[in-house]
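Suppose you are handed a protein chain with no further information: no name, no annotation, nothing but its sequence. What can you learn? This example shows the usual starting point.
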Amino acid sequence: MTSSASPRIAIESFIKSQAYGLGFDLVGITQLGPAETSSRFEHWLERGYAGEMKYLDRGAEKRRDTRAPFSPAATAIVVGLNYGGKSPAGPVARYARGDDYHDVMTGRLDELHRLIERELGRDISGKAYVDTGPILERDLARKAGLGWFGKNTNLINPEIGSFFFIGSLVLDLHLEADSPFEQDRCGTCTRCIAACPTGAIIDERVIDATRCIAYLTIELRSAIPEDLRASIGDLIYGCDICQDVCPWNVSFARELSEDAFQSREVIRDRTARELAHDLLALDQPAFTEQFRGSPMKRAKLSGLKRNAAVALGNVGDASDIPALEAAAKNGEPLVSEHATWALAQIRRRNRSNMMAEV
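A reasonable first move is to predict its three-dimensional structure. Written in structure tokens, the prediction is:
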């Protein structure tokens, strides 16, 4: 006689095999319930570390319990999808070089949902979340056994590092949960903290987003504070520095295997200066066409031009002056102000170089 536990074990194994078959690199299962990190997250918000990301204030009540956003869901299937930590560093963070991960992962999680319903022969209420909704997905991922919170706040998996996206499929289906990841394998290492150019990691596992290059080049809609511009260097969209130096990524980050995340033509093999010139020359229709389906749309064209001007101000030379002068003269105020700043930086360097030669 078959034991009552057999079907449960079978469906969990089925779910994981199908998730891997859909291309996910990690998969775990956890029960929904009180979010362990919600109080720390709310304290982080209270301290103003979210900057202009006011949308994070919404849904606090639901965020405290992962059952609340989608009742009557009981279980979360949490997945990770590698985005190629072994790819060379560049002016655009690795996660943003290809297609939007929200679209890629949501489609696959929806397909996993359909496969589960087909296997069980009935409709199952559920919803996919990929960096959306009032859910602390890192919390769920740790509970599902996918990794631990690094000192740079990224979730780190001991087999593939931290260069992976997290997504969740919450279901009205009771499944056997995996063991949570309890160990902190960072030990005494503080390489990520020391490497941050702007000092954004103000304590272990605490980031002041208002100093983080990812925030400054993506989420910030206003002017980048002048005292932080030089530290941005030649980065135009996002930053991977705190991940690049992590020993777990040095040892275990993977090559990019997902076609959807391959660099699109407008970014591929472009140096920071080349990309900056391209962005400063773009008009809105061209931007819409070239960046359709790209996560880089989040910064909007004005934000990308602002970032391009800062990058040229940091690494440009006299040959970049005409493009910056055009941006300072014809750009909207946000772009014009940063282009004017960049021109001043280049001219100051030029004067210093001339004096050094005398």
